[in-house]
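[INFO] parsing input record for Adenosylcobinamide-GDP ribazoletransferase
[DEBUG] input buffer:
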Amino acid sequence: MSAGPSSPRPSTFADGLRLAVGTLSVLPVRSPVVVDRRAAGVAMTAAPFVGALLGAIGAAVLAAALWAGVSPLPASVMAVGSLALLTRGLHLDGLADLADGLGSGRPADRALEIMKRSDIGPFGVVTLVLTLLLQVAALEEAASAGLGPVALVTACAAGRLALTWACLPSVPPARRDGLGATVAGTVRRGAALAVTAPVLAGVTALAYGVAWRGPYAVPWGWFAPAVLAGLLAAWALRRRAVRRLGGVTGDVLGALVEVAATAALLVCAAVAG
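[DEBUG] output buffer:
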């Protein structure tokens, strides 16, 4: 008897990692061989580590600009701008689209249609401008106190950790297709907790290292709470989006990244001040 057609193999852990890097950044990586819900779960679980890597690159841009004599404000603009380039502006676009959808006041199906449009409405523009201003101002405050690089890594990790928690089985997708449907419900709560612990420990250790080696009196114990503040802000927005739209979409997930990162940066700035 001849063998029937072979079924496609399940994804591997490497497929999930490639999916995480390729989706969340412009960093060159080979495309995953298989993209399924298992790969999506690995990608969303690994998201905060990709965020920390992006934050490290942005921190290097900030540190290099400060070392070259650039003042903290334009250096912060350069760092925030580099992160937008590293992510193709994907999360900022999602934030603008979600603002337009929620701000429209239309029923869920109509709001989702508005979010799919390629243009940006007034709610989206205002939200983008205010968010970027907050990020730059908070980073400038942290950079002036010697906390800029640590704050940026903390914020970027917090933003992507919000993705992990947004992909729990209790969070439904708003559509049957798209990125939201692919990743929704792919992360178990135990995995989310397991990845949160090293993120909190990592940002605390990084801040402690700066406090121990550097000339600044770094309040290193506040960096883990900054991550938690980011998660709380993302939870509030996610709850609103699920109630309003019926679930999450790719745009909602992108908005959660930016909101969590901004909240974490604001806490870092408050500590620096």
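[INFO] DSSP finds eleven helices and no strands in the chain.
[INFO] shutting down worker
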